[in-house]
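Minutes, structural biology subgroup

Action item carried over from last meeting: produce the structure token record for Centrosomal protein of 76 kDa (Oncorhynchus kisutch). EB confirmed the sequence was re-checked against the source entry. Recorded below for completeness.
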Amino acid sequence: MSLPPEKASELKQIIHNHLIKMNIHAKIRDVLAETVREDLDPGHSSLSEEDFLRALQRRGIVDDVMKDLHFSKVMSNDCISVLPANMDPARRYLYLQVLGGKAFLEHLQEPEPLPGQVCSTFTLYLHFRNQRFHSKPVPCACEPDLQEGFLLEIHREGLGDGSKMADATTMLSICDPVHLVLIKRDTSSETTLVSSYFLDWRTVLSSPSGKTSIAVELLGVGSECKVTAGVLNMSLDLYPPLSEILSPDIITTQQSLERQKTAEKERLFLVYAKQWWREFLEIRQANQSKLVKIFAQDENGVNRPVCSYVRVLRAGRLLESPRQAARFVSLLGLEKAPVVGGGGGGKQEQWCSLLAFLCRNKGDCEDHATLLCSLLLGFGLDAYVCVGTKPKSLAHTWVMTRGTDSTITFWESLTAHRYLHQAIDPDAPPLAPQPRPSYPYRTIGCVFNHRSFLANCQPSDAVELCSFDFHNQSQWKAMSEEAVGSVCSPGSTTSLPPLPPLCGPSLEPSAASNQLELELRYLVVEHRKDLGLATVWDDHLSYVLSSALAAYELERCTGTSCGNEEFQDAVRRAVPDGHTFKGFPIHFLHHNARRAFATCLRSPFCDEIVCCRGDHVRLAVRVRVFAYPESACAVWVMFACKYRSVL
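Output recorded by EB:
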């Protein structure tokens, strides 16, 4: 049985690092000197290799080397998978290995991709107890070659217990599932959510060998949540193996008790919600038409209280301020859930779990609003998701924060715009000055966050007339925080998806900027060549454009403009007298050069610059990629030209 070259080199590196860590060379020198002094007879002139190996074994050097090397032979397609060397021997690990997929029937007719051919790919994402991983992308096929191993740490969260090895009983009480999300990425880099699955890994606790193999049936999402998308073969291994295993009956009983407890909590909340709704309708007749949303379906078709979609989310060092958080959320793409056949008003309701939203890198306005609200709560603001309508009675969600001075600010999660709310007084005299709303919202039916749910029971649900005094029970009817917490607080029920941490940027901004700029230059040269035009680049002018792009992004983040004077002064110095300067900035959420260039040419202003004819024409292009958490990015491109004016 042979190792593939990449595994062989990985194994050699692990052993090499381990030997250096043990200072093995010094130990060998000591044993060699000692052996030469003690064991070599005066009549011998040399020491054989066998004599030296026996000396190393007698002194326990070989045993010391092998004692701390932990490998596991996990058989898969005649290969050996080597576990990472950074395992802490005092911790318990779950090694989850994906051994390939099958029955992805949607790709039954998919042709075998040719070497180097760009094709659609599958990527598997995992989240388990604050740890996130993803596989390498593999070509989409009926039997995709998903072969990947993930080392998941099963640690205890209690204070003072971090150094203890988790035993079988402790692990049985850990009901956190492994959340698997399968994403398809097509040739134009558009992503599709294929499946979202919660794996209960605890069956491995009853395996005598500490290893079990399973076939996971992945179901579709949205309107296809009852249809099988495909099957993944997996193996689960516990390291180190348990000294005492649990019987399968104990595990089944524990899972059954958890389901019963969750079902009872959800039943009691549903009874409470129905009673609360009846009371709300009795307040006034107009309440029946207000947009009050208590439950929403997730990607798997499961009805969950809307409050469970909001959690306190801290981004660590990845986001520095609430406004930067709003900018990050606005960079995630907008896509409504597809409707088969296009009926039902053209929109399928689907609120996504946070991991599915982040992995897909796009979602509906509800996904954006719940993520932004979670981040603002993490920054210590009093934030709520608002459910209401925009013009033409289009349903919409956005975010609201309440200041300590009762200031109400609306945050549009799709654009990062902020609006100050000042209520209009309907009882004021006709000629009295009234504030003019700048926000695009028309009505508001309810607001909620991770702890509160309040329905608007004011005579009018118009946002401009609305008061946001939540303590006034004649204006807002609140649900019991205890009732909301019973099904929405972390750990309250096993049906709640665990909250994943944000990951750092997947792009290196400088490298991505340089690459995209080079590709755009090539496309401009080829485009002008087709028109019979030569292309001469002005590198200094290209560099001067950088400050404008940085200022544009800063303005999107903070709402304040700066640096424009310096940019204008630099351009005047770079453009000689008697010459004309033209510039065209544009913003993208992707870094695909051909897509970006095609979009730019659709603008007559950009086309005029790229296809510029005249005397002494010099072209410039500058790209700045700003990387944000996950795979979100803001891409700014500016095309410019200068040429001698001829009257």
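Discussion: The longest strand covers residues 615-627.
Next step: EB to file the record with the rest of the batch.
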